[in-house]
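Protocol step 4 of 5: obtain the predicted structure for the target chain.
Materials: sequence only (see below). No template structures provided, no constraints applied. The aim of this step is simply to have a reference model before the mutagenesis design in step 5. Sequence pasted as it appears in the construct record:
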Amino acid sequence: MPISESTDRAEPPRVLRTDVRAARRRLAGRVRKTPVFHTSVDGPEGPVPVSLKLEFLQHGGTFKVRGALNALLAADEGADHVVVASGGNAGIAVALAAAQLGKSCTVVVPESAPHTKVAAMWAHGAEVLWHGTSYAEAQRKAVALAAERGAEHLHAYDMPAVVAGAGVIGLELEEQVRGRPPVLAAVGGGSLIAGLGAALGRRRHIVGVEAEHTPALSAALAAGAPVDVDAQSGSELLCATRVGDIAFGIARRHRMPVLSVADDAIAAAREYLWREFRVVVELEGAAALAAVQSGAYRPEPGVRPIVVLCGANTELPVL
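Step 4 output (structure tokens):
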């Protein structure tokens, strides 16, 4: 089934398991099948068995390269130039994907974009333009710039092919982990949880985890539609302030639970990963683990949840 954009705002385009399978075929040999590590982590009442999906080992240090590559490969007649707005990882992913496919890339970033992530975009040959103080402002500029230059515009997270690419993680988990344990993943803009939902449907329980200062998905589910939320934190944890339409639709259809975790719990989870496993992830990459360690998520007896560690692009001095 081909993936296509929809102009009907009331009904966002659906991404199905068939789309995710098509994405896996496109991405064969282009992305890493990241490993799963079975271990136990400290919880509020003692050790908690978990399976860690080490997606931070993906090319570019982010799961987003899967969606970026799939979107560019799925385009029937893609332009030679691609434009994306991003606060960080999506820009890195699109820059890497464009370089792999011989395309030029422009990333529009808000003024708050971390230098480490901007440097990674440059390293992959991208042109980086600063515009505005928020992702929304950068996104409006990226849309206008793509039209002006006759370039292909990619959305960082709310695009069917991007979601389908992220969903390949779900297909890998079916092969790597026996049974049907729940899967915990950070929400952000929603492409990761949406991809997992599209790939796994009701075969496995998907749990979204978001920082308490940017409850984008929780607010959307409460309001009945995606809404803007005000970020109340000055930390490194830069999350999307509005969840994507596709992610909202999948979360609502699947009745996906969403957990809120405090910033200090996320920071503690990241520090724990470094201290115990010598694993370096960014704050959002540790959000799902923070839900387990803080007690926000308590697995049923005998259940070993899967925790997706989704990104590694961080400022090393903060550790």
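Step 4 remarks: The CA atoms of residues 1 and 118 lie 36 Å apart. The radius of gyration is 18 Å.
Proceed to step 5.
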